[in-house]
Amino acid sequence: MAINFQNSVSLNNIPTLGFAVENLTGDPAGVTQEGSIYYNTVSNILKIYDGAVWTQVGQNYNFTISDAVTTSNIVKGDTIVFGGVNGITTSINPTPLNDYVRITHDNITRTDPPPTTDTPAFGGNFNVVSSVSSNAQGHITAVQTTAVTIPDPSGTYLALSGGTMTGPIAMGSNLITGLSNPASAQDAATKAYVDSLVTGGLTFKDGFDAGSGAIVGGGNLTTGGSRVALSVGDFYVVTTSGLFYGSVLLDVGDSVICKTAASQGTSTVANWVIVQSDEGVTQFSSSNSMTASTGQAITSQTASVGSVTVQSFAYNGGSNVGHVPSGGDSTRFLRGDGTWVVPTDTGALGKRIVLNSALSYVTVADAGGIRTFTVDVSNAAVFGSGATAINTKCEVITAAGATVYADITRSSANLSVAFVGTPANSTYEVLLTYVG
User: Domains along the chain?
Assistant: First the structure.
């Protein structure tokens, strides 16, 4: 079913996409609006109503055709001839219909020298293209070749023994092997030579028990006269928590790095840098700050490590936080003060009004071929005192319920609906929704 517009539609110069005019097999009767258009599907032409008769759109036309020298105006009835010259041939396409011109670029015959199949070595010859000839239309008419001699490579490549490079060498991820240790500042260095110069790097040793000092792989790190000797960069990871050298608590995952060397049986905590992976729980306290609830939030906790039990309070309004309190159901909602209430039904905010001037809150006026019905939304029979038209949503329908489109304006408590022509009372109705 078509959408029924009852007033002019302004698109405000916005492009209309995917638009198609009405398709008919003949001129429609009863049209009074000058400028109406339709497409005739029998004659395949677009027609427009001039206020008296239907005429073909674009019935008369002219256009201009030109080349580099001459310009001509083409009008209806003129014939345009496409003639081919200088390597261009024109013809009418024979199939499926003689309804378009084919323009063909002619082939040009030329003779090329035979290709060479030689595989010459250094000092040998082979042919290459040296020049190409063409005619005035740009067609290639001849190809010329010349012989090229491959030069002797002597002096171009580095000998296997001795010689000097004149540019960089890319190894392509391959190794250079068999190097001697460097003697000068710019000599290449072997991996063994570089490794011998590196000091102070980290060397992972093993895991250990922080309390007893026992090393997982054997020996002791912190206890007894036989505790292991240390080198700068030795790196151990705690696998069992405890007091490191009896003084510093380390948890599983913490690590220690030797910063100063020590001989066997002489190391102290001062020889190490301690890296803690996280911080253990040391002390918690409970407070009622920022909550109106009472009681301890933390109900239990161990000394420095272990679990903590936290009690959650019910939300009771204000800026306090907490879980949703009990008392809610499908008919109640939680207010900001933390209490549950049943919402109040304020009644319907919608109204169906017949556009009939016999009603006390509906008036009608005619001007310039437009009939306007005005509804007073502040009337007690509509939404009542204080209601404003600007807060009222409106949909126009027929008595049968079909939506139509009219011009709707709002002013204070009045909502006006304008139609082209003079529709009778009760022809249309409005569905009003008040959002104020």
Answer: 62-105 (no CATH), 204-275 (no CATH), 282-326+333-339 (no CATH), 350-434 (2.40.30)
